[in-house]
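Q: Given only this backbone (327 positions), what sequence would you predict?
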């Protein structure tokens, strides 16, 4: 089978990552997969979304959240960003360097002089324009590698500070915390760059290493890949795969201090202890008891509030609003 350059016509992060996994499992020859995603936050395999993201802002602005199966940190993507994925069966030991050389050559075609930095980044004049993550798949007796990355062409950079890396006191996690970095769009270094131009330069650069590569514009999605996309959209995968963590929330209402301590595992509250000087101890005990085994987040606190006795309704509404604003 010939090498392929596959250009996706969908902007769904779930579909595109499902296609990537599908290609990786069935690839008999190298594939370069190029795609864009609508407004999306992508977290690494072992990251905690509650530590990495302002979830309330993300949900209010209808930004998608996806957990990928590779490692690395949290990234924001929109249609000002182009993603590339190198899928290589029987990968050479230096696959990262080989793939990076293709990307650097593509940028050079666009008159952008870039270089690699650290383990995963591509920079221009000290500013990060691209980051990558990696995954190795065992396919029978062979290893297949996925090397996927982002290229900031004209992304809304203000969205990074709007949605990413909140500082949450007292939130302790075993997950991997994203590392802040100085970032820039490629348009700063080439004012005419766009997605079409970058894809064209990537295609040209890839063809230098794989001159017989076939270009495919992909509109549909195979049934098996569709099933993978459905899994990626599932709450249990996005939130339930979060590392175990503890979270303490504390505030003062007019009726007393409310110090809420939770142990969360797989996105579900396993323990809840509330310290309070509230003069209605039954209410405190109700919340403490009912939070256990609820999903951590808006859905869980809504379920507790919906089952709250009418006598506590006013206090419960205050707790619900405060809880949601604190995540």
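A: Predicted residues:
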């Amino acid at each position: 089978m010939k090498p392929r350059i596959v250009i996706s016509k969908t902007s769904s992060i779930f579909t595109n990552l499902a296609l990537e996994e599908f290609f990786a499992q069935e690839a008999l020859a190298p594939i370069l997969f190029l795609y864009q995603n609508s407004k999306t936050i992508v977290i690494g395999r072992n990251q905690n979304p509650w530590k990495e993201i302002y979830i309330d802002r993300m949900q209010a602005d209808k930004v998608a959240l996806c957990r990928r199966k590779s490692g690395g940190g949290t990234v924001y993507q929109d249609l000002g960003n182009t993603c590339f994925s190198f899928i290589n069966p029987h990968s050479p030991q230096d696959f990262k360097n080989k793939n990076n050389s293709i990307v650097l050559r593509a940028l050079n075609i666009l008159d952008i002089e870039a270089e690699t930095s650290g383990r995963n980044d591509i920079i221009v004049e000290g500013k990060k324009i691209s980051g990558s993550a990696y995954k190795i798949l065992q396919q029978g007796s062979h290893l297949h590698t996925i090397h996927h990355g982002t290229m900031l062409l004209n992304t809304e950079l203000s969205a990074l500070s709007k949605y990413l890396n909140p500082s949450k006191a007292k939130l302790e996690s075993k997950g991997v915390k994203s590392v802040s970095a100085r970032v820039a769009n490629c348009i700063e270094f080439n004012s005419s760059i766009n997605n079409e131009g970058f894809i064209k330069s990537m295609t040209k650069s890839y063809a230098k290493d794989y001159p017989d590569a076939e270009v495919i514009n992909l509109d549909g999605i195979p049934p098996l890949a569709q099933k993978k996309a459905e899994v990626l959209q599932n709450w249990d995968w996005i939130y339930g795969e979060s590392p175990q963590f503890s979270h303490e929330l504390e505030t003062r209402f007019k009726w007393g201090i409310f110090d809420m301590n939770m142990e969360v595992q797989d996105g579900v509250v396993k323990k809840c202890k509330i310290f309070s000087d509230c003069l209605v101890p039954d209410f405190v005990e109700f919340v403490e008891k009912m939070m256990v085994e609820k999903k951590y987040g808006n859905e869980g606190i809504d379920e507790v509030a919906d089952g709250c006795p009418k006598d506590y309704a006013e206090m419960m509404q205050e707790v619900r609003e405060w809880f949601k604003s604190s995540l």
